[in-house]
UniProtKB/TrEMBL annotation:
This is Prefoldin subunit beta. Heterohexamer of two alpha and four beta subunits. The gene is pfdB. The keyword ATP-binding does not apply. Keywords: Chaperone, Coiled coil, Cytoplasm. GO terms for biological process: chaperone-mediated protein complex assembly; protein folding. Pfam families: Prefoldin_2. Residues 54-152 form a coiled coil. Residues 1-21 are annotated as: Disordered.
Amino acid sequence: MELFKQVDRASAPDNPYSDRRFTEFHVPSPYQRYKKTGYSTYSMSAGQQVPPWLQEQIMKLQQTQQSLQSLQVQRQQLDMEKNETDKALEELEKTPEDGTVYKHAGSVLIKSNKVDMMADLKERKELADTRAKVLEKQVQRVNESLKEQETKINEMIKGGGPGGAPPPPPTL
């Protein structure tokens, strides 16, 4: 049974979150857990809730997922910035040495020279590359943490509690 899965929400005009991806969390019921271990006579009341220790672990997992999403957004923004810088460098290289070049400063264009602009753009590109490497390492660490947390939650669910020991079989 799959514990986590990515779900695309159907695009609907009344759904403000239709363009986002969500991770749904499926907690097998105690009945399903016992059935897998041979305790098929166990029954569960309809109002049973997720235990607090599991809720805490799920909250930690969700926080880690939010961190990963934030890092991915930062990476996308950085990729866009790198692409813009690359395009600007390409266009600047096509410009003649004595050609007029303007630099964008807020809502104003300032006259500049090609050499200074090239140096500035190359420095920006190097900085963006360095930031991209750092972000990639952070994403790797967060992904590893997510896998560890998912494994821990799965073990806790299978084991029946935070200690990992299975709950006693139901009495007949």
